[in-house]
Amino acid sequence: MDDFVDIFHVRSVDMYMIFVNISATCVQYLEYALSLGLKIKSFSVSDQRYPVQDLRKILLACAHISSLTVYMSDPPKASVLDCFQEFAVDNLELDVTPGCITLDHLFALVNCSKVNIAQVRFDEADLNKFLKYWLSGTSRLRTMAIQLTSGYRGGNYLNAQFVMEGIDGREIERNKKFEIERSDRVKTIVSIYNIAITLGDFDRNDLEY
Question: Which residues form the Sdz-33 F-box domain (predicted)?
Fold first, then answer.
C-alpha cells in the first residue's frame, strides 16, 4: 500500500480504465490514495466492468476532478445516476444508453463547468425547461452540449422556436443562435443544430449528428 501511494505523490495522472476489471479492493486503493493527495487530471470509466456499488464509489471519488468520461452501455441503476448531484467536474462527458438521462439528471449537473452528453431522448419542452432552470440560478455551468439519439425523432430536427418559447433572448442567427442572460448577468449563446443543442462556446466540430 505504501509503495502504491508513494507513486502518486509524484504528480497528477490520467487514468483510462475502460477495459479494466476493477474489484472492490482496487476501489479502496483509489479512495485511499485520493485521501492522501493523489491528483487525477482525467478519468475514463465504463459501466461494463464494475458492479453497481463499485461504479458509484468510483464516480463519487472522481466527483471533483478536472475531466471525467463515463460510458454506460447498459441501463444504469438509479443509485449510480443519483450521484450526479455531487459532481463539480471541469469537463464531464457522458455517453449513455438512450433514455437513461432525465431532466433531473441535467439539473444535477449544473455545478460542472463543461458538460457533453450524447444519446439522450429529450424534446423541445424538456430543453426549454432546462434552459429556464439554468437562467434562474447561479451555477458553474458555462458550456454544454446535448446530442439527441439519432432516429429518436423520426428524422425531425429540433424546432428552435419551441426550445426558446418564453425565454427572452436576442436572436443572432435565425432559428439557430440566441444570446440569453442569466439573473446574475452571465450571458451565453444557445445554438441549435439539427438534433443537438449547445450552451456557450462549444466547438461544433465535436458534435455528431
Answer: 85-138
DSSP-derived letter for residue 190 is: E
Which residues have CB under 8 Å from 48's CB, separation 6+? 71, 73, 74
Lookup result for grid cell 442572460: 181
CA 58 to chain centre: 16
Closest of 53, 103, 113 to residue 83, by C-alpha: 53
Return d(Cα 58, Cα 47) in angstroms, integer.
11
What pLDDT does residue 40 have?
Answer: 83
Residue 209 pLDDT: 43
- When pLDDT is cut at 50, 70 and 90, the band that residue 10 belongs to is very low
How far is residue 31 from each of residues 9, 46, 57, 83, measured CA to CA in Å? 14, 18, 8, 16
Write down the pLDDT at residue 201.
80
Residue 100 neighbours by CB under 8 Å, 6+ apart:
72, 75, 76, 81
Give the Cα separation of 96 and 67 in Å (integer): 17
Beta bridge partners of 6: none
Beta strands in 97-142 (DSSP E): 114-120
Q: What angle do CA 192, 194, 200 make, to 5 degrees?
A: 25
Alpha-carbon gap, residue 28 to 185, rounded angstroms:
43
The residue count for the chain:
209
How far, in Å, CA of 25 to CA of 58, rounded? 12
